[in-house]
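INTERNAL AUDIT FORM
Audit reference: QA-55
Scope: verify that the stored structure record matches its stored sequence.
Auditor: D.O.
Record contents follow.
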Amino acid sequence: MTENSVEAAIPKKHSRKRRTVVFVTVTIMNGVLLTILGFALLTPAANQSQTTTSKNSFLGDVHSPLSGKPAPDFALSMLTKSNVIVHLTDFKGEVVVLNFWQSFCDPCNTEAPFLQKTWTQIHEQKIVFIGIDVPDTPAAARTFLQKYAITYPNLEDTLDGSISSRYSIDGFPETYFIDQNGIV
């Protein structure tokens, strides 16, 4: 072995050792960060209220600026008959279940069969179901309705999503219950 080959082997050995130390260090740091992230996701925030009012305690922890207020009216086209306009005020005196959805939303796809089944069981009790598709392509929305054989009225929100904005929608699906007096 020549003197140059011995010197060349030494840096490779140190380089390999350095890479191993860096790899182990980064792996440990990733494990610590994942543990912290998991803990943060599974621990409720300290500032969240754990109480509910007696008025809506059966609903759980409901946070909507519309709770206890009149539901915003709308005039929207039906998805299946675009020449038919539906107003919320058309259902004054009836209980309304208003569901905001999108065809590509996984939870929306999961709950759609349940909503349709529930609708078929209770629609004769003067409870109205209305679905509102929030900016989606009309073709995708109609495919969604056909896929789940949805028979209750479904409407198309405006292109700018103004109705979902008026209802302060912050995720999908989101469902509002409106009493006979039009109160959320």
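Auditor finding: record pair retrieved intact. Helices lie at 3-42, 106-122, 138-147, 162-166.
Action required: none
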